Amino acid sequence: MKTINVGLLGCGTVGTGVAKLLIESNPVIAARLGATLNLKRVADLDIETDRGIQFAQGVLTTDAHAVVNDPDIEIIVEMIGGEGIAKELILKAIANGQQVITANKALLASQGNMLFKAAAEEGVDLAFEAAVGGCMPIIKSLRESLVANRIHSMTGILNGTCNYILTKITGERMPFDDALSEAQQKGYAEADPSLDVDGIDTAHKIAILTALAYGMNINLPDVYIEGISKITPLDVAFAEQFGYRIKLLAISKNKGNQVEARVHPTMIPFDNLLSNVNGTVNAIMVSGDAVGDIMLYGRGAGMMPTASAVISDAVDIARNLMAGTTRRIPALSVQREHIQNIKIMPMDEIVTHYYFRFAALDRPGVLSTISGILGRHDISIQSMQQKGRKTNGSVPVVMVSHLAKEADVQKALTEINRLDVVSEPTMLVRIEDEQLD
């Protein structure tokens, strides 16, 4: 049976999972592949910690360059992360003619266009199933299973940390800071959680998926990003009264000559399947012209789910090597000459529905003043509630709008927030509900 050698760069949480599967699941993989994936070298700065794996003598090294420069290694798996040494090693492996696998979404979102171009010029594959959605095969689905479809839209929960926090706020009315603290205690959130709770991690993922879905270059800088730190139990309660739950959504829509790509807290109806995705689980809904709507659901992070996706890439690449071919599937789903420079719509041009919560002083004429400002900016109100206890003389006034343009909404709120009868900045949450007008 043919042996294909693999080099692993980085043996942290996911890297350990990759090593574990390559060693302990070797018979299963070999039976399905018809070849042996041999973990020849593993590079990590720490080669003393017991990872619960029995490595063969000489496999572990602290020299990552020695792994990349080993002529017997055909597949390099980069699990280091970040945009520094990881990029350097990936480019070196590509230059050496090695096939590369990475789960490095941050690097792909920022440098992917350059890396895919380098791989194409050297005739090698750069695979990245594990970069988005953990064990959910969303990359394979977009590039292969949905190849005959024009993708209309994608809507997803792509960060388990945020989904866990919002689940706690929703289910237990727990304040954001307390929910974050619990997530950190359970190991679901980092000591510095900003990459997750500020929406940046989710933006990396939707930037990659948007490129794959619509045949365009990756364009992270133009993705709108808003995190979840302002979401309160009060807003969750009001959302439920309107029939909604709040989720951090990645939203991508094909508008023909431009696309939407945005990340922000969003109210979605109870009957939307995504509204019932809780805890650390991820899910994404894809709408195509031939298949209609499909949904993928699963663990979006963690040692073994992510490692499973890495191994799927390794097997795909190994099958190509056994057939004497590479680059069988275009990295960005279309042939390079067909990649388009499609514009991402500025957030100001987005049209959707809105939830507003005003902290208004309980005085005559306040509602008419607020409504008047909204009306002058072409924002009409679909429903309104005014209830709750006074806080420093203010009561929450909640409104749900008809379709409105983001630029108009922001201008109106700027004017409203300057009123002396409004005691704190207005809370805004966008709504995605096809049943609203």
Overall residue-averaged pLDDT value: 96
- What's the CATH topology label of the largest domain? Rossmann fold
Q: Strand count, sense and closure of the main sheet?
A: 12 strands, mixed
Q: What does the radius of gyration come to?
A: 24 Å
Tally of DSSP helical segments: 14
Structural class assignment: alpha/beta
Number of strands: 18
Give the overall form: elongated
Task: Describe the fold and architecture.
The structure is a single chain. This protein is of the alpha/beta class and 437 residues long. The protein has 3 domains: 2-135 and 303-338, Rossmann fold (3-Layer(aba) Sandwich), CATH 3.40.50.720; 138-300, 2-Layer Sandwich (Dihydrodipicolinate Reductase, domain 2), CATH 3.30.360.10; 348-431, ACT domain (Alpha-Beta Plaits), CATH 3.30.70. 35% of the residues lie in helices and 25% in strands. It is built from 14 helices and 18 strands. It has helices at residues 13-24, 26-33, 64-68, 85-95, 105-122, 138-145, 160-172, 176-185, 194-197, 200-214, 233-241, 303-322, 366-376, 406-416, and strands at 2-9, 35-43, 60-61, 75-78, 99-102, 126-127, 151-157, 224-225, 244-254, 258-269, 281-288, 292-299, 343-344, 351-361, 381-386, 394-401, 404-405, 427-431. The strands form 2 sheets. Strands 7, 8, 9, 10, 11, 12, 13, 14, 15, 16, 17 and 18 form a 12-stranded mixed beta sheet that branches. A 6-stranded parallel beta sheet has the order 3-2-1-4-5-6, with helices on both faces. The longest helix has 20 residues, at 303-322.
